[in-house]
Amino acid sequence: MDESDIELLKKQLSIARNEIKNLRQQICNLQHVHHKDVQKIRTMLQSFECESCKINSRPSVPNQKDNSYHVPTNDVISFNPIGVIKTLFPEKRAVPRQANVAAKLISRIEMDPTVFNNPEHSLEGLETFSHIWIIYHFHRNQVHLKAKVAPPRLGGERVGVFSTRSPHRPCPIGLSLVQLDRIEHAKIYFYGTDMVDNTPVLDIKPYIPQYDVPEKIVMQEFYCPREAPDGEENDELALAASTSTSGNSVSNVTVPNWVINGRNLNVAFNENAEQQMKELAVDKKSIADILKADPRSVYLRTKYGSQIYTFQLGENTVTCKFDDQNSIVSVLQVRKVVNLSDITTLSEDE
Hints:
By secondary structure, the chain is α+β, with helices and mostly antiparallel strands.
């Protein structure tokens, strides 16, 4: 064993130690979350009422002249998913916060064959659109309802949950605009992913710029005497509505500065990671897109600062190191996920 091998082993040992430290920190975080969950369950049990008790204690319905607020009797709404989304993110860790952050990651929707006898029939005509809206359920979210949340870009400052796109909402429903790639039978392939694997899909709608782009536009050259039926809009008219920059177009779209002025980190790959990505045929740009947007939570970023960070992308685990002072994240290692069950089986065979 020469000196280069020894240095490589030392480097790998250092990475392993840092990962163990990071795992310990994550365990502490999980313990904190677990404690909060236990407290919440205790509170719910203490305030629990059976259905008959709720009916007896429910206030009388106000008359029509009374404008006071009244809670509807049917306060639970249930939906059956029409399918699931298959992505490269088995866990919530490092999932992009917006679909266009990692625009080259391809995912797919698998339609539930029990919803329609021929689910592929429900997708006929969808291939003529370039983008689609996906409405889905945040099924992996823990119940932590808060009126105010801390968006990552605000660095800990809290704002109302409905002024953010936080996944932690009273009704855990997600909405993403993605680019349609292709449709094969009852499967929809698309680019742009901000969902965890096996996310339940509630609905799919085509993206129509003529209606979905909030612009006040006076169109003289592209005047249309009647409103086109859904799905039959003229492409030139829709394009004009979404891209017009003439004097006849008056934008009424505003967003707060903290949404616009988000920072991007510089992403660097060491030689070891570069070689591993080539061997594993991993898309370098997708990893860079995920990391430059800083996938860490505000809690991790503020409490632990520069740190080793790992996440799973498909069948691979990415290990990187954040340097918050210089706004750099370095990718140290990209390796195939080790399946513990396979190791157990192998040892038994031996």
